[in-house]
Amino acid sequence: MKAIAYDIMSYRNRDHPCWRNSRIGRDLKPEGICKKINRKTKGLLPVHFAGRPCEMSEILSLPHGLRTVEDCAHASETMYHGSHAGTFGDCGVLSFYSTKNLPTGDGGMILTDDDSLAAWFKLISQQGVTTVAWQRLSAGGYRHYDVAEIGFKYNMMDLQAAIGIHQLRRVERRWQRRQEIWNRYDDGLRDLPVELRSEPREGTRHALHLYTILIDKEKCGISCDEFMVRLHRDNIGVEVHYRQLADHSAYQNQFGWRTGTMAKRRTSEPADCFIAAFCQIDGQ
Ligand SMILES: Cc1ncc(COP(=O)(O)O)c(C=O)c1O
Prior knowledge:
Elements: H1 2-12, H2 30-36, E1 43-44, H3 56-60, E2 67-71, E3 79-80, E4 83-84, E5 91-95, E6 108-111, H4 115-125, H5 133-136, H6 158-168, H7 171-189, E7 195-196, E8 204-205, E9 210-214, H8 217-220, H9 224-233, E10 239-240, H10 249-255, H11 262-266, E11 276-280
Parallel strand pairs: 1-2, 2-5
Antiparallel strand pairs: 3-4, 3-8, 5-6, 7-9, 9-11, 10-11
This protein binds pyridoxal-5'-phosphate.
């Protein structure tokens, strides 16, 4: 889970993520980003949430001089003015987790055209070891390995890659099927008092990973939680993307945060903008 993973990462590093929130499924306003940058800012992480591309040309033209890592976990089919999401920033990161559009069980992929970054990612993803087993044991003769950097065990398994290769040819067919289901959701929800996701922008392709709607209790006469319970009762899978960190017991215990306080304290957005339900459309 993105929100949890990033926070664990930053908590362990004693850094704090700065969330620049857009309303769910709506546009992240590039001009808002600059206001959040300060001397402690390490980099930008635009999230192509639900599969809808961020305004990459505007984001990249901002005068920040920071590294940009595109979060493409939802965006394996996302295109932005003729190029794939993940090819704009210094790198783009795809997720192949089992709920994603291109699942391999778990794992992911980093895209970059920077050779030195690519070499470093490769090194630290295999515990910083300079040679992998098949290189050490090959017919070319034994070579000692060296731990050149203190890395992680983040390599994707060959078995996962073998599954992924076969998923590739299904990607387009599944996208077409999701488009049909997406259109049905549009038709069914259009006249209801829920707030719908934004239309895909011209010159872009939405990966159609999540269909997001916003439930405002005032307008809908039902809370998001009640809405989800009822849909589950009807065998329709929905989930909140994402629960605030302040709703989770680990953060409540560690920092004394309480439900509903974080959005007001750490962003300028009202708490209810985080409450959205999504339906994963997968052709079922
Ligand atoms: C937007 C976003 N980014 C990143 C991730 C993390 O992906 P993974 O589970 O492959 O680490 C997720 C997972 O749900 C996500 O939704």
